[in-house]
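User: Structure please.
Assistant: Input sequence and predicted structure:
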Amino acid sequence: QVQLTESGGDAVQAGGSLKLSCAPSGHSFSINTYAMAWFRQAFEKEREFVAADSWGGGTTTYADSMRGRFTISRDNVKNVFYLQINNLKPEDTAVYFCAAEFRGSGSNSQRSYDIWGQGTQVYVSS
């Protein structure tokens, strides 16, 4: 089974930083031929787009509300995709999901992605 595994979620105080990681698990694949994205879902809210990177890393897209504090990157050698979050706020509390689409353009739509992880929990206290 092809899937992703996220890690790095934690309980932190407001103002802190976290770096989330995402890597293939099960039947592994090389992320350098995939568009990669982060989404998040807060309790009792719909899943929302955070940021995405097209396959080959040519285009990076952020949700407007995520610009400035959120940074995505990938290490194609380690085969890991990252999300750096700085100056965390209580409203960033959510489960963060990683997703992949083979040779994708880095869409902000969940429906574009067919490989997902189980999510990693981020909790930010005030």
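The first strand starts at residue 2 and ends at 7.
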